[in-house]
Design brief:
Blueprint (H helix, E strand, L loop, with lengths): L4 E5 L4 H12 L3 E6 L10 E3 L5 H8 L4 E4 L11 H21 L4 E7 L16 E2 L12 H19 L4 E7 L2 E2 L3 H6 L15 E2 H13 L4 E7 L10 H8 L5 E2 L14 H7 L16
Parallel strand pairs: 1-2, 1-4, 2-3, 4-5, 5-7, 6-11, 7-10, 8-9
Helix pairs in contact: 1-6, 2-3, 3-4
Length: 287
């Protein structure tokens, strides 16, 4: 599968803008699409509502791959039905258009929230730590459910067109420029455990989006995307025992120090992804 022309939905968002730059730096022809304008966009960008299937067809055609980042990114601002409808319908429409138009590669933004712990109504103790992709998704809220259903849609479209390759990226908290200064003041304060204190730098989120696009093995794969450590200066094991006392299956050897409670090794094995940036935005030693 030769990929030259890429459509990035949500191209004017925090991750989308960096994905556009990442793709351009690696020689791809990029089209942007978003519901809000970006006057300084380095590529041609169309104002598009991906809840409309006709608009989606119009933008998806004539591309070799789609990186679908357009979504409402949390349940905190919009009514639940708006969050769910927007995220699910836009994802369905992208898959539908790609399938009908013969586009074989789609990368889509899922979320760690698909697991169900982030915006829960009732507390959830995961089956084990570190969490990996085998732990079932059990979302309760509109946002988590929208991401969980997005992955179910991907499975369905693969059943329909087994030659397609779909990658669902379960991003954790995405740190953009300046986030580190805020975090620096709170590294001893665990605060909310919504994302298990995990993070990923936005530049690494863009990198893994490109790598996932270049991974063209047929089928649907979901990946947790996190840095290998938390953003806290606190022992991970102590945090897990305090906040998730019902989880008894702990691989303590892999949870020493500030090790991430979420296992990102599948993305490393299949996509060749290794995070390059630390919580404060600086490069990792050896990166």
């Amino acid at each position: 599968m030769a990929i030259k022309k890429v459509l990035v939905t949500g191209s004017n968002g925090g991750i989308g803008k960096v994905i556009v730059r990442e793709l351009l730096e690696h020689g791809y022809q990029v089209t942007g699409a978003d519901i809000v304008p970006w006057r300084e966009a380095p590529v041609r960008t169309y104002i598009t509502n991906f809840e409309d299937l006709g608009q989606t067809y119009g933008l998806v055609q004539n591309h070799d791959a789609v990186i679908h980042m357009a979504a409402i990114p949390s349940p905190s601002v919009h009514a639940p039905e708006v969050v769910f409808r927007t995220n699910v319908m836009s994802t369905f429409n992208v898959f539908e258009a790609a399938t009908v138009l013969g586009i074989q590669k789609v990368v889509t933004a899922s979320s760690l929230s698909a697991l169900g712990t982030a915006y829960h109504f009732n507390h959830i103790d995961p089956a084990y730590f570190p969490i990996d992709e085998s732990v079932p998704n059990v979302s309760q809220d509109a946002y988590g459910l929208s991401k969980m259903i997005g992955e179910e849609l991907a499975d369905g479209f693969i059943r329909r067109t087994p030659t397609m390759s779909i990658s669902s990226l379960r991003f954790t908290a995405v740190f953009t420029e300046g986030t580190g200064e805020h975090i620096k003041q709170q590294r001893k304060n665990p605060g909310s455990p919504n994302a298990f204190w995990t993070y990923i730098d936005v530049r690494d989120a863009a990198l893994v989006s490109r790598l996932a696009m270049e991974y063209t093995t047929p089928g649907h794969e979901a990946y947790y995307i996190t840095a290998p450590e938390t953003h806290l200066d606190l022992p991970t094991l102590d945090l897990i025992k305090q906040y998730y006392p019902g989880t008894k299956q702990l691989d303590e050897a892999r949870l020493q120090g500030s090790a991430s409670p979420v296992d990102c090794s599948k993305a490393e094995r299949q996509l060749g992804f290794t995070p390059r940036y630390l919580w404060d935005g600086s490069l990792r030693p050896g990166a």
